[in-house]
Amino acid sequence: HADTPVKFTLDWVFQGPTSPFLVALEKGYYKDEGLDVTMDPGQGSAGAVQRVASGAYDIGFADVNSLIEYNAKNPGKEILCVFMAYDFPPFGVYALKTSGIKTPADLAGKKLGAPVFDASFRLFPAFAKKVGIDPKSVESVNLTPQLREQSLVQGTVDFISGHYFSSVLDLEARGVKLDDLVVFTYSDAGMDVYGNGIIVSPQMAEKPEVVKGFLRATIKAWKEVAANPEIGVAAAKNRDPLIDEALELRRLNMSLQMNVLTPYVKENGMGDVDPERFARSIKDVADAFGLPDAPAPEKVFTDYYLPPKADRMVAP
Amino acid sequence: MPSPPLVELKNVSLAYGEGSERMLALGDATMSIDDGEFVAVVGPSGCGKSTLMKLVTGLLPPTGGEVSVRGQPVTGPIKGVGMAFQNATLMPWRTTRDNIMLPLEVVEPHKRRLRANRAEYIARAEALLASVGLGGFGDKFPWQLSGGMQQRSNVCRALIHEPQILMLDEPFGALDAFTREELWGIMQALWLERRFTAVLVTHDLREAVYLADTVYVMSRRPGRIVKVRTVDLPRPRTLETTFEPAFVDIVHELRERIQQEHAE
Amino acid sequence: MPSPPLVELKNVSLAYGEGSERMLALGDATMSIDDGEFVAVVGPSGCGKSTLMKLVTGLLPPTGGEVSVRGQPVTGPIKGVGMAFQNATLMPWRTTRDNIMLPLEVVEPHKRRLRANRAEYIARAEALLASVGLGGFGDKFPWQLSGGMQQRSNVCRALIHEPQILMLDEPFGALDAFTREELWGIMQALWLERRFTAVLVTHDLREAVYLADTVYVMSRRPGRIVKVRTVDLPRPRTLETTFEPAFVDIVHELRERIQQEHAE
Amino acid sequence: MSALQRRAIRLAMPWLTLLALLVLWEVACIVFHIPEIVAPRPTRVFEVVIQRWDLLLRFCLETLWTTLIGFFLAIGFGLLLGLAIGASPFIYSGLYPLLIAFNAIPKVAIVPILMIWVGIGALPAIITAFVISFFPIVVNVATGLATIEPEMRDLMRSLGASNREILVKVGIPRAMPYLFASLKVAATLAFVGSVLSETVGGNRGIGFLMLSASARNDSATTFAGLFAIAVMGVGVYAACALIERRMTRWAFRGELVR
Amino acid sequence: MSALQRRAIRLAMPWLTLLALLVLWEVACIVFHIPEIVAPRPTRVFEVVIQRWDLLLRFCLETLWTTLIGFFLAIGFGLLLGLAIGASPFIYSGLYPLLIAFNAIPKVAIVPILMIWVGIGALPAIITAFVISFFPIVVNVATGLATIEPEMRDLMRSLGASNREILVKVGIPRAMPYLFASLKVAATLAFVGSVLSETVGGNRGIGFLMLSASARNDSATTFAGLFAIAVMGVGVYAACALIERRMTRWAFRGELVR
Ligand SMILES: Nc1ncnc2c1ncn2[C@@H]1O[C@H](COP(=O)(O)OP(=O)(O)OP(=O)(O)O)[C@@H](O)[C@H]1O
Ligand SMILES: Nc1ncnc2c1ncn2[C@@H]1O[C@H](COP(=O)(O)OP(=O)(O)OP(=O)(O)O)[C@@H](O)[C@H]1O
Ligand SMILES: [Mg+2]
Ligand SMILES: [Mg+2]
């Protein structure tokens, strides 16, 4: 019989951190599960959520905080996250050492530049509260991703927000060493929100076999990539022949270390959430986004589709 | 019993523009044209002759009075007309041949027959062009023709579909005397053969008398019909006819009436 | 010693188009026009009269032979010309008055003086319009004028800047006999007063003889000058002159020469 | 049908079609259960418009004036360059291909670079509006000039007019109908340009408002922004059409559209 | 200057200006120490073009055919709608404002919604190219029709021609110079549209290539993509210009540009 077609959207272009999906596709793991997966790059997490919500895509890879916001605003039409990929978020803000910013408190009254749909930017108010500054004292400017790092270098803005593995590497490409940077990651500030996860459309949620198969195949690939990141980069290279392998390898390693293979994951396996922490993070997010009421955790995440813990131990 | 007139104008007036721009071009025209009659209209420049032509063919609705064709009041452009406008208005994107073949593409029954009988129609167009001295110019574009040549093409275009009513607005004004007189002959021959109804606007009184059964003289603007002169010279008329006293008399009579108009 | 000719054409020929499209419009024209001379050119339709006008004024470069003005070979449009083209080419975005005032905006010294003396120039334009019977039509747009009225405006535009060389290409073709004869008188009076050089293309031999000092007769296309006839009738000529035997003789002589051309 | 009735219908038509469209949209949303995030129902959008009236207006005005400045610059320079291209074969052959090349490039790719050069704010929005709306004007003016009847040119040349005079007295009036046709396109493109620039960077204008609304999954506000842009576009168009009727009446004297 | 020399200069001009521009750019990059990430030197871009020749070509072809399909659809429907608008005052007043409104809306805001409806791939690119290049054609064709000389219309009416016949025999040929003017604009916009759609979603075409290159900070490749689009734009323009010369020779008979 024919394979079940599945349309899958990423949150961004094909890069090292998302290469496990490509590995699974390339090595036929999805096919082995009876799935015919097509994979497209995306335009940010909000877009990925919209694509899945509208039914244009069955499964997506998106920032769970975006999902929380969507679900809060669309009660009764919730989209579920079925797999948490980034146990720790890659969120952070970055400034040049030369700007004189030393501690998070110095950010007050400064100018922040970031794309408005950037998750770090959206969560900045929560971060600001955590570090004890008034988010309103910070002037923010919308900058398309191509502009963000360049604007920091040129001094158009005082600091920027973004994914760690994007901004640090982009700044490096513009001649700014990690040593010249002041980095405040949100997790360092005690903001333990979650990062990206796999989300499924309501229609897809009704086909547990498909979702479960998709997760099994993905985890298998993730395990291989964690053990051997080069195969991830190779898969990305196959898909987009122009990428710089060395750079993507670094990006992938960064994301593996910081976001994926956290102590919690090493202990409990990849994909699940700590219920208590998750509930707390939903509150934080609802606060930062100014949502009237936070959705219940079970309206955002479910472990229903997850394979047994033993199968989810991805750390090498 | 005489047949009812083909075209009838009753106290027709026409004003261009509206409000303060309003200007009476045609004052009060009453005329009736019989089927198969050849009518000429003469009058000073700007008196409303071209306007009259447009009224007769239904291109313009009168502001006063009534125009009727075959007893029916005219509400839109009437059928079976071939009109040579005062300005040639040839289409610059068509060759001369294609320009004069335009009516064949629009007017029934030619429209229907054109595709199948293309060669025959092209031959007809070429013959017509040759008869007015434009043989070999079919492939030229109108803007490659001289003024007089454009005017002759314009006449060809009005003739090619053998209309029942032929309207000619100063058709030979840009031609030399000999070409012009030759075309009179051709026009008369055509008329004698087909007996269409024709209205000719001209400033050449000899032309009017040579070709027409009836000559209408119009007053200065706003135009009225001030004289109707029947020309009962026998047909076919020839260039010799134009030197006969009867002919010359009519020309003089008309000339005097216009002069009177002009002197006012 | 007679003054050297103002305009001189030596074996001038002109062909339009290139390659297989090439067509000789003007065969071999040789003529010389004196300063202050009134010249008329007659000939069959399509023989190259309008082409000749464009050659004389330098609008077209000849393909053969040489055109010189005041002894200088012509390389581009010459100065001090007023030209009434065969088609009126009035600008549809200007009122009639603004149309005939166009040369004042372009030609020195009027251009320089126009802004300061606007009222005076407008009066001049109005007077000119009135003299051709278009008084009160200055505010109309050209497309609101009849054919003959457009033609008269066209002549006004050629006159208003008092050019030294006046080129008239069938200027009165669309006018009735009386208006036309009136304009002959006006034209002659102007000429007598200002003694400009004029070239008139016409199909009306009486017009040619009435106005011109010299009449050139052209052959069929490709045009050549086949006859040059000096008209030595005394000035000012009047309408009575046109009935005098001397006048009629010249007209007949020209007529015969053209007929011969036509018969070929 | 009397002339008056015709006129009334003509005036009512745009509103009727608009209404029909909105009703259709509303019904489609309800019947097909279209999620609000994909396309909010018009009534929802109007709700937002009424609620956030002041906010929308403020952002709109920011966009409007940058757009208008860019648009006017485009008219000025477009006319000049169009005349130059129409008048000189060398400028034509030297510049036209480059202009085409530049215009085929999506401005999205250029605007970030522009912002690196000139910074963020109103200036890049003005420049983008200018750059994007400039080209249709050039093309149409140049075509208007190139299609001048040779008879008109001969007339001017016979008067000894210089090329510049021919351009001014014949070229420009003759190119007017072409110019106004292009202005309709240019006006809409100018809005596209300034809004584009606002979404790429900065924190002003309706583009920024729409982008941040869409980042918040607030699609009703995004659509309210779209509506606002559309309304402004129609406003500028109406102004152009009005001037067109006054300035090129001669060209429309025989309008099929009466 | 002989006619031959003139012609040679005319042919060389675009290349000369292009060369001048590139040299200027190169020099500016070196003199002002512009980092490659902001604007790579042209020589760098050409290096990339030569290195990645096959890849660029593949992506270009994908873009080219989607663009062309969209462009041809735009010509077809644009002509039809332009004729309808030019021919009927009711369609004119009913549709024109809506068209303007729609066109003032930045397509960036529409394309994601479009993709939700029709999915990702060539189809949204074709539709975007179509939608964006459609409007200039409509406007220009409608203007061409509206400025028909009344004399021509009278001539047709005197022959008893129907409105449709007037449209076909006079309207369409008369609107051709306007149509071709708009095609130059529409062709460039079609590229903007398809590339835009490719950057919004999908993994095909030069737009995707540029997006992923810019996400990698590989600005030389991004610019190589821009160059490629520009070249394709000029190619399509040249084709249009060629057909224009054949089909509207009558309108250009007195060209200022000789
Ligand atoms: N622009 C042009 N291109 C090609 N051929 C032309 C052009 N203008 C005129 N001709 C040709 O040149 C010849 C002479 O034309 P011209 O206009 O000089 O005649 P004309 O003597 O003024 O005739 P008419 O009395 O009919 O005005 C004609 O055969 C015409 O076809
Ligand atoms: N479209 C128009 N708009 C306004 N007025 C017009 C229009 N057409 C003609 N007129 C006016 O109507 C009057 C009569 O014009 P018409 O063209 O009928 O004259 P005509 O007798 O044909 O003159 P001619 O012998 O000069 O051709 C003129 O005074 C003219 O100004
Ligand atoms: Mg008339
Ligand atoms: Mg002539």
Automatic annotation (TrEMBL), chains B, C:
InterPro entries: AAA+_ATPase, ABC_transporter-like_ATP-bd, ABC_transporter_ATP-bind, P-loop_NTPase
PROSITE patterns assigned to the protein according to its UniProt record, in alphabetical order: ABC_TRANSPORTER_2
Domain of life: Bacteria
UniProt keyword list: ATP-binding, Nucleotide-binding, Transport
Residue ranges constituting the ABC transporter domain according to the UniProt record: 7-245
Listed GO MF terms: ATP binding; ATP hydrolysis activity
Zinc listed as a keyword: no
Pfam families in alphabetical order: ABC_tran
Family: Belongs to the ABC transporter superfamily.
Listed name of the protein: ABC transporter ATP-binding protein
Taxonomic lineage of the native organism: Bacteria, Pseudomonadati, Pseudomonadota, Alphaproteobacteria, Hyphomicrobiales
From TrEMBL, chains D, E:
Keywords on record: Cell membrane, Membrane, Transmembrane, Transmembrane helix, Transport
Pfam families (alphabetical): BPD_transp_1
Record field: transmembrane: 12-34, 64-86, 98-120, 126-148, 178-200, 220-243
Family in the record: Belongs to the binding-protein-dependent transport system permease family.
Domain ABC transmembrane type-1 positions: 60-244
Source organism phylogeny: Bacteria, Pseudomonadati, Pseudomonadota, Alphaproteobacteria, Hyphomicrobiales
Protein name: ABC transporter permease
Domain of life: Bacteria
Location in or out of the cell: Cell membrane
CC annotations in GO: plasma membrane
Bilayer topology: Multi-pass membrane protein
One BP term from GO: transmembrane transport
PROSITE patterns: ABC_TM1
Species of provenance: Ancylobacter mangrovi
